[in-house]
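Crash report, auto-generated. Payload:
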Amino acid sequence: MNRATSDSEVLKVGIDLGTSRSSISAANGQRHMVQSYVGWPSDMVARKVLGRDVLVGAEALEHRPMLNLRRPLERGLIKEGSDQDEKAVRELVRRLLELAVPAGSSPALAIHAVVGVPAETLRVNRQNLRRILAGQVASTMIVSEPFAVAYGLDSLVHTMVIDIGAGTTDFCVLMGRFPTEDDQRTLSAAGDAVDRHLHGLIEERYTDASVSIHMVRAWKERHSFVGESAPVVVDVPVRGKPTRIDITEPMRRACESLLEPLRETMLDLIARVEPEYQSRIRNNVILTGGSGLIRGLGAELQRALGELGGGRVRVVKDPVFVGSDGGLSLARDADDEYWKRLSP
Ligand SMILES: Nc1ncnc2c1ncn2[C@@H]1O[C@H](COP(=O)(O)OP(=O)(O)OP(=O)(O)O)[C@@H](O)[C@H]1O
Ligand SMILES: [Mg+2]
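Recovered output after restart:
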């Protein structure tokens, strides 16, 4: 199917391992996304009904009542010492590779992967992650998600990337080299925290409504906003009866809970940069990640930059593959010597 794959022994890929979604971009042109859920049948009956030992992605989510369901990168960490989480990461990567590597490829095909993970995972789990992936890829380079994004957008100098995902918001200041710890920050104020907050506010206001976190997340993904919005009205069962409820205020409050922590960290990171570069960085802030799509958020952060003399925030409109594409560019740019050093 693809000459580059069948003729050479190496396939370079970029993988973005996210809390809620993971994606792969491969040098053979394949690009795939799976939701970061892995589930095992919870008993013998579930095993029989499902006919499989493990389910990954949207399928796992759909059949969750029959599964022990994991989201292995929840809160940005692979839970330490959890065999189950390690197995789940392995299954997730196996699925991504299955999708990207054509069936019938040579068994000798070596995968060279750049893997983007939340910055916190990188700090705590780098060795662990390398070990987990060792059976599936020949060489692994692990980088933080916002760095992979910056690489993909070719914005490697005088840039700040703010990646608002599900489990974490990762900040990274790019100064034209690999970022150090000091250039990066991680906050737990991100999509999952908004979901929990919104869920709580709705339950408080409509005590009889039955609302699951999955329903709340779906409403947020359609109607999220900060600032002004038309009324947000949704249907929920109230004592079994479908009922319309107005969730405009809860939606505003839950989404706006991100503003203060984001503003504070953004301004603080900028203030730490050497003064002559600060204004360039202020004018080159990139907002990415699924939660970067909250309506009005980019504009609010840009307004906050006014406190330091003004700036510009650009929102990545289609953030799903931007991290894995960046990983792939990096995988391509790293020469053979570099990869050799990364091999176990
Ligand atoms: N249109 C939207 N408006 C608001 N939030 C959204 C929208 N689309 C997706 N999200 C939220 O974005 C988050 C997922 O974003 P993303 O895929 O960047 O996260 P991730 O990479 O899996 O997580 P992390 O980077 O924390 O590991 C979820 O919380 C999801 O509900
Ligand atoms: Mg992410």
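Post-recovery validation: The CA atoms of residues 31 and 204 lie 42 Å apart.
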